[in-house]
Write a structure and sequence with these properties.
Blueprint: H1 17-34, H2 36-39, H3 45-66, H4 75-105, H5 111-138, H6 141-160, H7 170-188, H8 198-218, H9 225-257, H10 267-301, H11 303-313
Length: 314
């Protein structure tokens, strides 16, 4: 699932990168906090997902602008945001696994496989409960108030330093940030030709996510063609995200099937793990194929080159 970014209205003096950035960061932080109540609901699957994505977008903006600043006080807040994102991630990962297992259960016709899937699903529910309990402390009113205070303090310190940025207008900031994200993705693109390198494909997925967030950040100010390119980047992110999810599940099934005797899976669990492993591998291959085909299309249409020229064409 790819969450849609909330579009942020530019301030009156939109040419000033610091004024623009302050407006965007406050809007993005407000978006994070607005999801708190939904995330705290026991059944708040979407709330957890939306809050996690909102934090990712906020952290991505801070990283983008940190690269074009001499010193950026907000970098310290990224660590606090990451801790919250990690807590949300523990719940979200369990939700995604439970959903995947429930869907696959409907396709199973062997009672032993179904019984084994139910065991795995219950185990993930227990993990979610534990992760949700940890998340609650991160989302207490006191924790959120403290994070908000740290955020505002760091933001004020950043904005007050007029000499902070190496760029003097928003157009230059757009060009440099998008160029940085395109270069990052291009440098990692050889991973497309290494289908079994889990780590390299994971790093490529993260780079694709950063590229998408950078384009979305400036989308209201960019040309119409940019929207189509942003949609294509979102599609790539989905394919690579599916590859990553299945890599995680394959690793989990494999570790259980190859564990030493006192920890190896047995009975219904083993039968279910073998059945699931085959289907995870098949679905993973399908997602990888889709990502590779889209990359080939990008190369033919020179998508990365076009992304680099988006700010110039504005």
């Amino acid at each position: 699932m790819v969450a849609k970014a909330v579009q942020v209205a530019a301030p009156t003096n939109a040419g000033d990168p610091q004024e623009w950035l302050a407006c965007v960061l406050r809007e993005r932080f407000a978006e994070v906090v607005s999801n708190r109540e939904a995330a705290l609901s026991e059944s708040g699957v979407e709330g957890v997902h939306d809050m996690r994505v909102a934090i990712r977008r906020l952290r991505s903006i801070i990283s983008d602008f940190a690269e074009i600043a001499e010193k950026f006080p907000l970098k310290t807040v990224r660590k606090d945001l990451k801790r919250l994102a990690d807590a949300l991630g523990g719940v979200r990962d369990a939700d995604v696994s439970i959903e995947a297992l429930e869907k696959l259960r409907e396709k199973a016709d062997d009672e032993k496989v179904i019984a084994g899937i139910d065991i795995f699903t219950e185990r993930f529910r227990e993990k979610r409960t534990e992760a949700f309990d940890r998340l609650n402390s991160h989302l207490s009113p006191e924790s959120i108030d403290e994070l908000a205070a740290q955020f505002e303090k760091a933001l004020d310190a950043s904005i007050e330093q007029r000499e902070l940025f190496t760029v003097t207008n928003l157009g230059d900031a757009q060009a440099e940030i998008i160029s940085n994200r395109v270069d990052e993705f291009r440098k990692l693109a050889d991973a497309f030709y290494d289908p079994f390198s889990v780590k390299r494909l994971h790093r490529l997925r993260i780079a694709g996510k950063h590229l998408r967030y950078a384009i979305e950040l400036f989308l209201p100010d960019l040309q119409t063609d940019a929207k189509e390119l942003a949609e294509s980047v979102a599609k790539m992110q989905t394919h690579l995200g599916n590859v990553h999810d299945h890599d995680q599940w394959i690793t989990e099934m494999r570790s259980g099937l190859t564990a030493k005797k006192n920890r190896e899976l047995k009975g219904d669990e083993r039968k279910a793990a073998e059945w699931l492993l085959a289907r995870f591998a098949r679905r993973r291959s399908k997602s990888y194929k889709s990502a590779l085909e889209l990359w080939s299309e990008w190369e033919n249409k020179e998508v990365l080159q076009k992304l680099n020229t988006i700010p110039e064409a504005n």
